[in-house]
Amino acid sequence: VQLQAFGGGLVQSGGSLRLSCVASDAPSFNFDDMAWFRQAPGKEREFVAGITETGRTSYYSDSVKGRFSISRDNAKNSVYLQMNNLKPEDTAVYYCASALLGLGLSLDDYRYWGQGTEVTVSS
Question: 52-75, pLDDT tens digit by residue?
Answer without folding.
Answer: 999 999 999 999 999 999 999 999
